[in-house]
Design brief:
By secondary structure, the chain is an alpha/beta fold. The N and C termini lie far apart (about 75 Å).
Length: about 850
Amino acid sequence: TLISFGAVYDALGEKQKALEYYNSALPLYRAVGDRSGEATTLVNFGAVYDALGEKQKALKYYNTALPLYRAVGNRGGEASTLVSFGKVYEALGEKQKALEYYNSALPLYRAVGDKSGEATTLVSFGTVYDALGEKQKALEYYNTALPLYRAVGNRSGEASTLNNIGKVYDALGEKQKALKYYNTSLPLYRAVGNRGGEATALVSFGKVYSDLGEKQKALEYYNSALPLYRAVGDRGGEATTLNNIGAVYNDLREKQKALEYYNTALPMYRAVGNKSGEANTLFHLAYLEQSRGNLQAARTNIEAAIKIIEELRTKIDREELRTSYFATVQGYYKFYIDLLMELHKKDSSKGYDALALHVSERSRARSLIELLNEANAKIFKGSNPELIKQERSLLQQIDARDTLRQNLQTSSNKNDPTTKATIQKLTTEISNLLSQYQEVQAKIRTTNPEYVKLTNPDPDKDILKLPQIQQQLDKDTLLLQYSLGKERSYLWAVTPTSMQAYTLAGGEEIKKAAEKFHTSLQQETVSDLSIENAKQLSKLILAPVADQLAQKRLVIVADDGLQTIPFAALADLTANKYQPLLINHEIVNLPSASTIAFQRQQLAKRQPAPKALAILADPVYSATDSRVTGKPANSQIAPNLELERSALNRSARSVKRDGWDRLKNTATEAKEILKLIPSKNSLEALNFDANYNWATSSTLTQFRILHFATHGFVNQDQPELSGIVLSLVDKKGNPISGYLRLADLFNQDYPAELIVLSACETGLGKTVNGEGLVGLTRGLMYAGAARVVVSLWQVNDEGTSVLMQEFYKQMLKQNKTPAEAMRAAQKTLWQGSDWHSPYYWAGFTVQGEWR
């Protein structure tokens, strides 16, 4: 009874009164030996201290309660405590730790049939994924929780879930959809008297109206929420509301008023240990100070915010979650770059432009650098065998389901309702298995003693500053590093002895021009429009440095929409008529300047492999292939179909029949390249031998160059599933596993000087702010490749074969580096008549070491 009194006073916001009742109940439970009741009281204590922002005190109570619940076998109580732990760690910014607790709680709730507890845990998962930028994943969890809450009549839980769904739609820019959900959640909160929930809904309304420009309406909602949060003692919610009110006054140009609200919110966030909220307020303060011309004050605040961000990201062990979280805070780095460039304009003698370049480096490819660090430390070698076994098993299950899904998606009855339902079921299963796979990978990392040395990377140690960047360059090389911002973008042009920074147009203008240029390249002729598009983009991103380019090698660190365009096909602005940039320039792409320095450190210790070249090409995809049946291809094929076959690209599935089309030019490509090298120094794996077993064989570690000529495919939602297609059937036509995916590459050892993926879209992937294109390139670098050659679109089969043959002639007969050889090969095709269009040759880029 005393506990029930306490719970009511807790809900009414009278925290101290609640504590008095719990203090009266505790000795009574202990006196009668009711350990379950004792544990419940302790958890309630923890919840009060959590709400009051005393997180460590809350954890102490939960730690005392958990073993009591376990001792009496109260699995529901155990689950509830685990969720409470998770919520504290989530509030402290330790999202990874929170997920671990939720993962432990969920099966316990399900075992005891507690649907409300199960729903609460699912919503908790959703809030973590939402905060980490995984919006679609968050929606999946919320939509699974909603019917569970409704089934048990938990209207407060239902309201909370609806509000959370609205927040996701708000973040995705679907404001009206967000309002619809808020309008449903608010009356539910009010009906059950949940004042804290009501305040949360009001704040959600306020944010939407603020974004829509209705500032006064936003203020009304925020001002209605504030007393509710105060009444229930939710200081974290109060701080968020104050922060939001400050942002509205800032937009209304009432700077002093905004400052007062921010300065009230900041110590409250600190008091409750909400690091993300603290960083957000510091960011707002920096923005405010910049607008008032107080640039140094702005700098102090943004540096403090970024320090918090850097600390929070090191607490996330799952690489893909660390990456998605970092994407959500890229605005902080963009703002800092903008601020430093403004300081540079006021005083060019202080080196603010060089510091801005360093911040640009700090904001990009961080996960890739950490992955390369892990590869060097052999994190996945010699780890817990049981975890390695689990990881392999999950990969096999993912592969089996995705293979089946791909087959169904290209089958003749793909639009059949039963087939559609099966595809959807497989998609859900794959998503769940991928999540398990990522969790196991995180465990492999954290249980390896070597990982501890890598968990706190020092940005000042791992990320290059200007002098260190210049050390990576030679007199014939010019680094062009881009940072695309909302209102303005920046370009740094760096040589071994100089650095110039330039202000470019806003990011949206550049991205639109890049998209038009990219689209115009997807045609087999060079049109006036494609030339105009090339010139337009060149003027936007190269005009300021046109006089510095000379005949130099250009090392490109692109950003955002520039990551998928081939700089080789841009217009050389020094020529009178359209001339591709590659005529006068060798071009190399890098994810960041720091990655090349890191690679060079590792490569310096490595002995080159003893043999020259291994080629896997022309796999067998179907049991109807003549190489299986022993019969020639169907002679009834329509005369014009052979013409269509020659125009095949290396990712398309034929509309004429199911599955992957054979790419006959890949065999020609392989045989012609192999003629350039003595057979004892090469490996030929064609037809059935171009299979998964050969691709993952330790034999490949003996070769300096690995060449894969086949179909490629990209999965932009789940990059781990992107890959290349190897033989899908054996000599008897039986199906075999044949997809070599990004997830597989993390288990490979390819200490190659060069890996060529002569396939479609192998340079693409999931576009992640701050990380670039998350795809096969990073997997190949992780496996050990010094350089990779990958493609940016669906390349033509025959044209690619011609390009690759010329590329290898230049490299093996003319002794050119891969970057020089690629330029020479592309130049040859451009200057010829058959493959003149950039569509045939510009899609391939060289990434990594150019020396």
